[in-house]
Amino acid sequence: MTHTQIGLLMLSGISVFGMITLYLDFWRATKTQKDNKEGH
């Protein structure tokens, strides 16, 4: 594998990981909001 291919693989992996992290953060935020509404 060339350095370019490795760089592209790393970039795609980072972007996918970032998307998953953002999705989890968003899901957690909506879940806590629902819990707070039900609790109060």
UniProtKB/TrEMBL annotation:
**Superkingdom of the source?**
Bacteria
Alphabetical UniProt keywords = Membrane, Transmembrane, Transmembrane helix
Where do transmembrane segments lie in this chain? 6-27
This chain belongs to the protein called Uncharacterized protein
Q: Which organism is it from?
A: Pseudomonas batumici
Question: Lineage, please?
Answer: Bacteria, Pseudomonadati, Pseudomonadota, Gammaproteobacteria, Pseudomonadales
